Amino acid sequence: MDGGSGNKNFGLFGGGVSGPPGDYPAPDAGIQLPLSGMSPLSPYLNVDPRYLTQDQDEFILPTGANKQRGRFELAFFTIGSACLTGASFGALNGLRLGFKETHGMKWAKPRNVQILNMVTRQGAVWANTLGSVALMYSAFGVAIEYGRGAEDDLNTMVAGSLTGMLYKSTSGLRGVAKGGVAGLTLSGLYALYNNWDRIKSSMWRQSI
């Protein structure tokens, strides 16, 4: 025997819901959601979904720390990348020299061994050369950064100049001067490349 006047369904948390099964009560007309100028809000979270989407990466850093890695952290990546680049370039150069020097030989085991020796020798030479340059550049950069207490493009260009001068230090004063100019030029081009977007935006603002 039904003791109620209508069909009642009980929700998950014990709340009674009148009406046929599967129906839900209409929202209260007195509830006003701030929709103007914003995306539709979730009636359950009451949060604008736009605030849940992050356009930039979030970092958990110590107080006063910079998002960018310092030169000491980047030194390992720089040296490793230089060694791998030198090994790859040297291997290709050794392969080219090997084919050139064994051009008159028949394609047999002695020719293969000679080409392989040339590839490994050139790869090791270039990896050692670029790795040494990257090590000197990173050491100068870290020392200058700690000495000045700042990190900017001036550190890059000074470290590049000192690296070129030290690398050519066995070639006399003329060689040292040439090495310094070469290091300054390469580091200046690198600094220009890193700041190219900022330079373009500055030029665009001045032209308006």
UniProtKB/TrEMBL annotation:
Q: Which GO terms describe its cellular component?
A: TIM23 mitochondrial import inner membrane translocase complex
* Alphabetized InterPro entries for the sequence: Tim23, Tim23-like
The entry lists its GO molecular-function terms as: protein transmembrane transporter activity
Give TM segment ranges: 74-95, 175-193
Tagged with keyword Lyase: no
Source organism, top-level taxon: Eukaryota
- Protein transport found in the keyword field: yes
The membrane topology of this protein is: Multi-pass membrane protein
Where does the UniProt annotation locate this protein? Answer: Mitochondrion inner membrane
| A Pfam family that the UniProt record links to this protein | Tim17
Q: Which GO terms describe its biological process?
A: protein import into mitochondrial matrix
The protein's UniProt keywords, in alphabetical order, are:
Membrane, Mitochondrion, Mitochondrion inner membrane, Protein transport, Translocation, Transmembrane, Transmembrane helix, Transport
Q: Which family does it belong to?
A: Belongs to the Tim17/Tim22/Tim23 family.
What PANTHER family does the record point to?
A: MITOCHONDRIAL IMPORT INNER MEMBRANE TRANSLOCASE SUBUNIT TIM23 (PTHR15371:SF39), TIM23 (PTHR15371)
Q: Which NCBIfam families match?
A: 3a0801s02tim23 (TIGR00983)
Write out the function statement from the record: Essential component of the TIM23 complex, a complex that mediates the translocation of transit peptide-containing proteins across the mitochondrial inner membrane.
Self-association state and partner proteins as the record states: Component of the TIM23 complex, at least composed of TIM23, TIM17, TIM50 and TIM21.
The identity of this protein, by name, is: Mitochondrial import inner membrane translocase subunit TIM23
Q: Gene name?
A: TIMM23
